[in-house]
Amino acid sequence: MRLSSLFLSPFESTFSDNASIGIHPFGDEAYSLAEIPFAHRINLENLETLETVNVHNVLGLVHHTAHLHTWADKVYNIGSKLGFSLRPCYVVVEMDATSKLTTSSPFDEPSGKSPWSTAKIVATIPSRWPLKLGYMHSFLITPNYFILVEQPLSIFMPKFAVNQLSRRKPLASSLQFFPDEDTCFYVVSRNQANNPQCQVFRAPAFIYFHTINAFETKIRDDDDIIIVDISCYDDPSFIDSMYVEALENAQSNPDYAKMLHGRPKRFTLNCTSGQITESKVIVNIGCELPKINSEFVGKPYNYFYAMCADIDANNPGKLIKVDVVKNTFKTWHEPNAFTSEPIFVPAPNSKGEDDGVLMSILLYGGESRIGPNRSTLVILHAKSWEAIAKVDILSESALPKCLHGWFFPDEHFKETVTQDKVTVS
Ligand SMILES: [Fe+2]
């Protein structure tokens, strides 16, 4: 029996299985995920749940992220496990992503074995603390490395267990921030032949949810340098900003915007010298839910896209295109409209990193609302940065603000668009 079973089983029935953070493709299948040890395979045509995978039963994980990476025909994710040493550990999980849907029943029956049946742990990194796990929402991948960033914002597992049993407090109430401790970058070799080697880099404390991208580079021939870009915050008060009470009082709280003050930063990790270069602000604007052209994950890149996190800025609901080479940015906004995560879709036979479109859902405030249940899908030309199409979505109830999505090509979808409007029920 796993130690984690002793820990988790009494609470398993108290876990929500609401996997509402993101969707990720595994070959032609798609799963919805959150930071709970469950994943739901979903029908992409009607979004019904097809089956639920208990990831704790598969791998013994007590947590995994909703920010996976696809690399060739594999999908990678990170999670956490408990060990007998009382020192929890982080793991990197590898799964096949080769399933092809049958033509007769494209959304109901996977043709091959479940990707979860191929899941295996390819790297294990112990937490720096006994009984505590660093909170990790996302991670990075390059051709030769996995990069896990352990911020000094930890989940104290005994308190988490008590809170879980009481069902009264969210995960955030189990978090402890140690401002005097470093943020650790664990750089893990992907070369299985040598057993995964881990090199640790330490930087002054910062907080993050979302990594942006990482890539390998050289200054001299014998260099082995990794560039890491992350949306960083100086302290954990932005987590407090998401409590319902804080949201309700946001308009009257003059310090509310300060809670969300973060900036995208670049770190340079020199694997040859073991040195980390001090972080550098990429652009002076808050960027959240960053996305890039997925063809450039783990590679040198030029652009990322994000929504504005500076809620006290003029037109705070803006979209941002950041040039990480020139350290410049452009914004796009519509008055009284608030954007969601931008999703980049490359043009067919794309001829450049920003040759494609960006899609985002607009939610409206004030007089722009034009009815309580109107939202709009806006499509921007990523290179010219102009809106080229908008589709109004009239729903039976107001759409909630979304977190993470994914673009799935339409080859299997029935035609559901009529005229210039889509009706969502
Ligand atoms: Fe996220």
Automatic annotation (TrEMBL):
Binds 1 Fe(2+) ion per subunit. InterPro entries: Carotenoid_Oase. It holds the Pfam family RPE65. Keywords: Iron, Metal-binding, Oxidoreductase. It comes from the Eukaryota. PANTHER family: BETA-CAROTENE DIOXYGENASE, CAROTENOID ISOMEROOXYGENASE. Belongs to the carotenoid oxygenase family. This is Carotenoid isomerooxygenase. The lineage of its organism: Eukaryota, Metazoa, Ecdysozoa, Arthropoda, Hexapoda.
